[in-house]
Amino acid sequence: MNSFDQTKVIAIANHKGGCGKTTTVINLAAEFGRLGLKVLVVDMDPQANASLHIGKTHPSRVDFTSAELLLSNVASLPAAIHEETNVEGVSLIYGSLALGKTEDELKDVTPRPSEELRSKLEPADGIYDVILIDCPPSLKLLTSNAMASATHIIVPVESGSQYGLYGADDLLKHIDKIKRINPSVRLLGALLIKHDERQTVCKLLESTALKTFGHILPVKISTSTKVNQAAVMQQSLHALDRSSKVAREFRQLAASLAQTLELNAAEEGGKNE
Ligand SMILES: Nc1ncnc2c1ncn2[C@@H]1O[C@H](COP(=O)(O)OP(=O)(O)O)[C@@H](O)[C@H]1O
Ligand SMILES: [Mg+2]
Questions:
Q1: Mean pLDDT per 10-residue section of the chain, whose length is 273 residues
Q2: What is the Å distance from ligand 1's center to 235 Cα?
Q3: In the UniProt record, does the keyword NAD occur (predicted)?
Q4: Which of 10, 157, 221, 243 has the most other CB atoms within 10 Å of its CB?
Q5: Which H or E run includes 187?
């Protein structure tokens, strides 16, 4: 059984690097926050890109990150949560380079190395409406911990790249394996990133992704230079340029997911307009 009755925990996972995981985590978090939902981002990537993007402190200066949380005792969650970030309504558990070492240590210090994050996050059930977990580009223990904690999984897939689905079978096998310890986890589907439906290669990838994953999320994210710009400025796409196409797409994606997951958004359109 999954331990989360009230909070929706979404792992954004794909062991392929550069397919849009972190971008999805940050902008979904920002849009959920705007809907009035209480959001926690958990950074499980040693590269800590999500933390660099929305954290008020550089991850190297944070004492208690997801690395320490994984190896600590059950009551340590409050020490890991930073309520203030660059994005309103969004709290953060920082990632850090130390996660690499933690991943090695987990095997030696615990009988259930894939279930440490879940047991540490459990006290947050009912406190946050949604927890978004940013995964590293691997299928090792850090990703297993994220998936074992999750109520739902989204797989960002780079559309327009002929290699976008490379490794997808391994990912699906891994999710099946995780279902032995987290049987209720649900794969929400593939999220097409850098999608352009006018391009044949994107159309081809879309139909293959549908066959592979069984479901494609109804909102697709197009290519935009604003994505990099927002990361450099440590802002969400909404804060950078709310009327841009890509900001609108993340807004629609969040609204669609809020409906699917029955997240109780305060009011449509949210605050901070
Ligand atoms: N829709 C997009 N349009 C243009 N660039 C994007 C888009 N999504 C992501 N990127 C860029 O692609 C790179 C990888 O994205 P990122 O979200 O960091 O992927 P991951 O976390 O899977 O490694 C980053 O430089 C990011 O700014
Ligand atoms: Mg990333």
A1: 88 96 98 98 98 98 97 92 97 98 94 96 97 98 98 96 89 98 98 95 94 97 98 98 98 98 66 45
A2: 14
A3: no
A4: 157
A5: strand 186-193
* Contact of 89 with 34, CB cutoff 8 Å: yes
Closest C-alpha to 19, from 223, 135, 157, 172:
157
pLDDT for res 3: 82
Ligand 1 test: best mutation among 227, 233, 246, most atoms within 8 Å of CB? 227
Angle of helix 21-34 versus helix 245-260 axis, rounded to 10 = 70
What is the C-alpha to C-alpha distance for residues 140 and 90, in angstroms, rounded to an integer? 27
Q: Distance, CA 87 to ligand 2 centroid (Å)?
A: 18
The length of the chain in residues reads 273
Q: How many whole angstroms from 267 Cα to the centroid of ligand 2?
A: 30
Query: In the numeric block, which tokens belong to residue 182?
Result: 């987290």
pLDDT for 181: 97
